[in-house]
Amino acid sequence: MELIKQKIGVVGGSQGLGSWIVKYFRSKGADARFSSRKENSEFDSNLQLADWADIVVLAVPISAMANVMEEVFPALDDKYLIDVCSVKKFVIEKYLQLRQVYTEVLPKYCSIHPMFSHRIKSFDGNVVLFNHNDGAEDLEDALKKCFLEDGGVVKDVQYIKHDKLMGLVQGLNHFNVFVSAKTMARFDEDFEDIKSVASPPYRIFIVFYTRYVLQNPLLYADIQMRNEYVYEVVRIFRDEMNRLFDIIQTRDRDQFMEYIMEMQGFFGQNEGDIELSSHLMQKLSQKLEEK
Description:
Blueprint: E1 7-11, H1 16-27, E2 31-35, H2 46-52, E3 55-58, H3 62-72, E4 80-83, H4 89-101, E5 108-114, E6 127-134, H5 137-149, E7 153-156, H6 159-187, H7 191-196, H8 200-213, H9 217-226, H10 228-249, H11 253-261, H12 264-268, H13 273-290
Parallel strand pairs: 1-2, 1-3, 3-4, 4-5, 6-7
Antiparallel strand pairs: 5-6
Helix pairs in contact: 3-4, 6-8, 6-10
Keywords: Oxidoreductase
Protein name: Prephenate dehydrogenase/arogenate dehydrogenase family protein
GO molecular function, one term: NAD+ binding
């Protein structure tokens, strides 16, 4: 398959990752267009887009993904369908249900997860996960080739495994960030005073608190609540938080040290990241000095 020869329609392509996808394929020379609820939509409806396109990309909010897939599904016979949802199990189950309802419609389906936001400046080092394929092997091969040529990283991760991993990579990290950021806000110290005493190893946490808190909270709400494995992960987080709180409250230094040492075996296999963290701290320090 030559992507440049395909008509690519992006549902939800007026903003966020959807707008990035439109611009990306246009930069490759493909005819990429989009539908949107906004006035700048290039189609009157999502169904009209699906009728026009060879490849339909669903880049809508997680909460809208199942309904939009059902809306366009009747127009997808012998067409390609891609979803870029960051939660997979419920979306792929919806696709399989629709295949049973619309037995006369035979789409070719590829479910992927770009692990980046629309703010990236280049593809270098950014990861795209491939999670499910139903008859769209040629499309998957073409996408992988395209992404790899641009310096991206592609990886196959089965969709159940994907959601379990995202419970840790996204769910746990987002939960930790928002609780930590809320704690900082509630403690009510002057923000500039906090930053002024935070050297790069601490400042980097503030950088990411700010980055996540000031983005659209709807995305993070859907990741926390639509991925069924997140609840299990954050329940463990709560248990560990309570355990460590009790250790600190009783001022038991031996228990504190034992608590840390219990996980050193797990993180010891990732010891190389210590050097990486030093590199990041140096880069952040240089950036701060420029201001």
